[in-house]
Amino acid sequence: MPNVVLLIPIADILDVTVTELLRGEKIDTQKNIDTKEVEELVVGSLDMAVRNSIHQHRKNWILAYLLCFLMSITEIIMLVASGNSIAEMKGDILLVTGLMLLFGAWFCFFAKDMLPTYYDANKINYVSQGIFRIHLVGLSFNNGNWMYICTTLKIWTLATVVLYPLAGIIIINCLNIALWDILNKIFLIMILGGMVVSIYIIGKKYE
């Protein structure tokens, strides 16, 4: 069913009402229209528009994830080719990149965009979907902020997947690995701290 917003100009051109266009028949002006029926038609159209929007949104994020995945693999190959062994990288670059790829994959492929309605009626500070669970004290999850929180986490995880190995390439190859060992800890604090702070800011804004 098409979006109601798109049907309005079409209805004007055809000189019919939106309800008549949705029903596919001319309505007798002398006949009382069932209010519930009209509401169901309009809500159905809006629901379809929302579902289509969510589907396209998810498709875009899946493409973004696959692109970032390929970029991160390329960067790790570059690190290995420049003389860094897998053993040297497994404690930081491989571990962090792998975890971010895992969480990013879950949010881009499997996370539900809508929460059950009881989240809107109650103050619940955790979300559990399958093997994933997020619990943040002082922040209530609902359908007003959940999609924004998911988007924030997607941005942080995918950005880390690309930028963290890239920082390793630049520092290790252009400077030295000892400096990377120092800056690496600072980067991890910035990544994790920034992610949590961003979630709280966005979550509270739309709570």
Automatic annotation (TrEMBL):
Q: Enumerate the transmembrane spans.
A: 61-81, 93-111, 131-149, 155-179, 186-203
Q: Superkingdom, according to UniProt? A: Bacteria
Annotated keywords: Membrane, Transmembrane, Transmembrane helix
The name this protein carries in UniProt is Uncharacterized protein
Keyword Membrane appears in the UniProt entry: yes
Q: Which organism is it from?
A: Eubacterium ramulus
Q: Does the keyword Membrane apply?
A: yes
